[in-house]
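pasting for ref
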Amino acid sequence: MANEKSVASSGGSMTFTLETAHEHVSDVIKAIPESLTAFRCPLCGKSFVGYGELERHYALEHPEDVVPVIIVLQLNGKACEVLIEPHWTLQRTLQFRLGLTGAKHMCGKGVCGSCTVIADGRCILACQTLAVELEGVEIQTVEGIAADPKWKTLIDSYCRWDAMQCGYCTTGFLVTAKALLDRNPNPTEEECKEALAGNICICGTYPRHATAIMEAALKMSQPPEPPAAQGFGGFGGPGGFGGPGGPGGPGRRPPGQPS
């Protein structure tokens, strides 16, 4: 049975809400192991319990090939070991070693922006960056942004303004928008367009992105709303005037008010 807390099923299709998607992506990040427990040969698929055994395997069976390397990536606030071939891009590593599919494989040539991630506060293209070059670099993907409650406002604005159609490029736009707001919390429309110039949308959603970003910036600049009144014997709280079960609850009125 589908977990109704994390996914809603209707008519055979599965649809995430914003809240359950946040929970799901948080679980995905937590599930990434911090240390390697198995060492699988990417050429023949054999698995070994230690890196030394994998090295010996290469010496015997793949002597002309480059031995995979172990790197440690600082990913979405978590350090994790990854076994990859030295020529692997970050996009391939994220997708096929860590199960993070938000950095999309689209053009593969660094021109569409769909694979954008943030590295030490700067947007980079994961399809054009070798993973081995990023040891010691703080990397943030769209999954990490979605798991951070601070950025729910930006995601909400993107949904509200329909700043996507097929959605394939949307993750790259969101990552770029987040990086923009990190360095410029109150961007103008022109600044939004300039920041997003490296992201391509075949569906043509460009007019909506700046609107969504500026709305999110405005909301994020405002102080949070105070929590709802709680307590007893007063207006609004549980058991109080205006609260459930209180004198001002449904069908009732505070004392002294005309009927």
